[in-house]
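Long-time lurker. I teach an intro course on protein structure, and each term I like to show students one example going from raw sequence to a predicted 3D structure in token notation. This year I'd like something fresh instead of my usual example. Would anyone be willing to generate the tokens for the chain below so I can use it in lecture? Attribution to the forum is fine with me.
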Amino acid sequence: MNKKNLYHIFLGLTFIIFFISPIQAQNYIEIEGVLGIINGSPKDGKIKLYENGQLIENYTSDRSGKIQVNLDLNKDYILEFSKEGYVTKKININTEMPAEYLDKRFAPIRFAVDLFQQYDEVNTVVFTQPVGVIKFYEEIGDFDYDVDYSREVRSKIDKAEEELQEAHKQHLKDLEDQKKAAEEAERQRIIQEQKEAAEARRKAEEEAKRKAAEERARQIQLEKERAEQQRKEEEARRAAEKLRQQQIADSLKQVAEEKARREAEEEARRKAAELARQKAVADSLKKVEEEKARLEAQRKAEQLAREKAEAEQRRKEEEARKEAERIRQQQIADSLKQVAEEKARREAEEAARKKAAEIARQQAEADSLQKVEEEKAQLEAQRKAEQLAREKAEAEQRRKEEEARLAAQQLRQQQIADSLKQVAEEKARREAEEAARKKAAEMARQQAEADSLQKVEEEKARLAAQRKAEQLAREKAEAEQRRKEEEARLAAQQLRQQQ
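-- Reply from a regular --
Happy to contribute to a lecture. Here you go:
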């Protein structure tokens, strides 16, 4: 096999390097690796890159397990591959080379690393050292693996990996044994549950038989008790019949007395009911009239209160309007006073200026024509400045007076609007209360009339029902009396025939 094209190293990893003749200058070496996990996925595998003994990068592998990294020249690197539960493997890549090769380009170094599962009983100390070394060989002008180093660690790595594979096989066997043991335990559990279910069914059937026997015994006892109860009831019925016959005789006497008493009570109740009806109607009419009078008095009092509140509201509005007008007049008077004071001040200043100008003129005539002209120019400039200041002050005063007038007018309009709003709200509230009171009074009147009529009707119905019940009782007692009289007559007739 041509070393310039392909080298395949089995040092506990599958390690493939492709070398291509230099193409162009570069200052790094491309590394393309693939992480493989025996009996697992490379996803979440960890790859660490050390440069001259210092950790400089951490990578996490995806499902493909691929990694691509560029290594600087003239440095010593360690690539460490690991995953939780698996052995860790390292590759040493030394990029040092003679200076004359630094301007050449080298093909990427490609390799694959396979990790085995870690087992405590297997000694994996051999993997603490790199499983392969790649470095530059001047005699071939390219990178190659260190064959001497590979031979040295080959046997140790093979032995460790064989032990790991055996441990893995044993682990799988243990898992299979555990699975079979679990299946057997589950089968035994199911058998035990079936036995327990059968025992429970047997006990339930025995319990059902026992309860059925108890139920039969209870039914027999109930039959005996019912027979005894029927005997006692028959004796009681005979005694009751005898007593009833005696009571019939007594009842016939009482019926006549009760009839007379009820007729008297009926007449008294009828008269009392009529009086009660008349009184209830009179009371209802009286209550309605009283309620109407109360509501009318209440309405008048509320009307008087509304009129008083409206008068008070108008008084307050008039006071607010007068106060706003007074404030406006005061503001105008203050403004006029300020204007008069300002005018007097300006006239005094003007007189002083004229006097000073006259003195200056006379002094200028005494001094020289040039000084006179200069003084006149100065006085004219001063006069114009003062005139400008006065006009500006007057404009500012007029602005303040206008703002005060507008503020007073706005305040007065707001007060009037608030007053009108309060009057409208109060009027609406009173109208709503008046409507509610009228409705309540009308409902109270109707309810009083309905209650009175209902009571009268209920009393009439009660008296009618009572009369009907008493009439039915009388008819029943009279029929019973006639039956007994007929039986007595027949018995007497039979007795005479026998004699």
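Some talking points for your students: The longest strand covers residues 28-37. Residues 218 and 224 are 10 Å apart (CA to CA).
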